[in-house]
Amino acid sequence: MSSESANATLDSTFSSAVATWYGSPTGAGSGGACGFADDVANYPYEGYIAAGNSNLFKSGKGCGSCYQVKCYQNPACSGYPIRITITDECPGACNNEPVHFDLSGKAFGYLAKPGEADTLRNAGRINIEYQRLQPLLLAFAVEYVGGDGDIGLIELLPSNARDRWLAMQQSWGATWKADIPIGTKGPYSVRITTLQSEKQLKHAV
């Protein structure tokens, strides 16, 4: 079972960082070292992702972390923030700065004014501001289900919910999602009910 988080509330003030981009100019980037694979092109990421240097990737613990980023110094910058998710690691030269986001081509272009995306991408490297976001959505893919394997219902039980299970919705494929209320705390128990046998399985995540 692999999990990701998205959507968010503000966590801090903006700080300075450096941004570059990789891949095709309008590409969705890569799930890379975080194991998200091609899922980065789909909801909830939609290609708004980044590979982070060691201070963002945190040996894998930073996978799924959400940030708001905006650029302001380049004339092509819109100055408006976009939300991105850390889905990969940017090693080597990315660690020459304290904080470095290597954005997908799509995400980098969306930092620009309308019609200026290519101009901004041609800059290659820009100064940005960023702030951490706290996710309010939990999504994960369910694999290797026992029994008949047909999933009818998935529910979450937060550690502070006192047996109040939250029903999840199927997002696409094997991925299920749930809006997480503010104040909810993990770890979570997951209850899976299959269509045929209605067998229920629980996992601490």
TrEMBL record:
Q: What is this protein called?
A: Expansin-B2
Q: Which residues form the Expansin-like CBD domain?
A: 136-205
Q: Which family does it belong to?
A: Belongs to the expansin family.
Q: Which UniProt keywords apply?
A: Secreted
Where is this protein localized, as stated in its record?
Secreted
Please tell me whether the keyword Secreted is annotated for this protein.
yes
Answer yes or no on keyword Ribonucleoprotein. Answer: no
Residue ranges constituting the Expansin-like EG45 domain according to the UniProt record: 31-133
Q: Would you indicate the residue range of the signal peptide?
A: none
Q: Which GO terms describe its biological process?
A: anatomical structure morphogenesis
Q: What residue intervals traverse the membrane?
A: none
Query: To which species is this protein native?
Result: Sesamum angolense
Q: Name one GO cellular component term.
A: extracellular region
